[in-house]
Description:
Elements: E1 7-11, E2 23-29, E3 32-39, H1 47-51, H2 56-63, H3 71-86, H4 92-120, H5 124-145, E4 154-155, E5 158-159, H6 165-191, H7 193-199, H8 207-212, H9 217-222, H10 229-232, H11 261-285, H12 297-305, E6 310-318, E7 321-329, E8 338-342, H13 344-348, H14 352-355, H15 364-370, H16 375-378, E9 383-385, E10 390-392, H17 396-411
Antiparallel strand pairs: 1-2, 2-3, 4-5, 6-7, 7-8, 9-10
Helix pairs in contact: 2-3, 4-5, 4-11, 4-15, 5-6, 6-11
Amino acid sequence: MAAAPPYPLNIGPIHPALKEPTMFKFILQGERILEVDFQPGFNHRGIEYMGMKRNPLQVLHLTERVCGICSAAHQFVFTRAVEHAAEIVPTERADYLRVIVAELERIHSHLLWAGVAGHELGFDSILYYTWQVREEVSDVLEYITGNRVNHSYYIPGGVRRDVTPEGIKKALKMLDNYKKLEDTILDIFTSDPTIVHRVKDVGILTHENAQKLCACGPLTRGSGVPKDIRFDWPYSAHGDMMDDFHVVTPEFGGYKATGDIFSQVVVRLHEVFESVRMIGWCLENIPSGPITSEPNMSSLLMAKLRMADGEGVARVEAPRGENIHYVRLKKNKMEIDSWKIRVPTYGNIMSWLTMFPGEQIADIPIIIASIDPCIGCMDRVTVVDADTNRSKILDWKTLHDMSIKKQRGIRL
């Protein structure tokens, strides 16, 4: 009997399996995926352009809107880039507080991902359980920073709020509770036959492809590539804890790094509890002193940031992977002269091209979710003139006028 002919299947840009708009174009043979292409660009917000119309302190709040889940990571790396450009040095206590909040965010992000992964597998009990566990770290983040989402915690030279003795007490209680849950959570995700069957040997990113495609974060560590900015290029308090912690790969949990989704599950869950231990280490060793090198915001803006003339690049290991911000400041110019963001998803999406072929239609949602994509923070847009094949930049007014014209056309 002849094999069924290949046929196309488009998923997106709006689909129940997608949390954000992206177009996937699959070529299938029966239930098997032969090849895939994808088209992002439906969620572009021009956030870098908006940032270049504001001064660095105003952009702090904009950075958190790049990604709601990694809001602290983006503000953290932007702050460090501004400090490099303006030659501002944060205080030692601030370096520890920055890492505490960053690792709290890593815990909440990985637990959120674990719940979403369970949902994509049709195992909603896992979603409810992990998100219930995640509530505790969100409560501690709110107590320390004042907000559960978009914490507005990082500022050039330090942080906005100190951690109180009561905050330390609540954080330590949370860490103890998570330590008690470690074996239970790891057992659920690595021993349950339903989960193991759906993620073992599925969506494989080989060690070679992870390096060739410049993947980052838990995705590349699941393939056995020990790449982590916290250890490769230590920043803030991470340089002080190098001897006590290690990059998490599947071998860290006693498994072989095969690059499948199971390996990514192992990496993310073990990173949760490695972050628990990192936070405990920081709370135990945090130095005393001021939380910022310049507490007066007016002086910071007018005397240091306005007079700065330079550029800075910073990297931070966000929950999804390496996050890079570039900032250029011009003397006597209040607005940022240039701002460029390279988010982890931008480095990871090409991995989909090698992860999908050979898998089944039913695996599409979990393979998409496996890289923990954030399309909103990745999307960029280039407008190409079909006649000349030349790209062009649209100014704000033109984009606004085009948006109004499009909406009126939809209503008709």
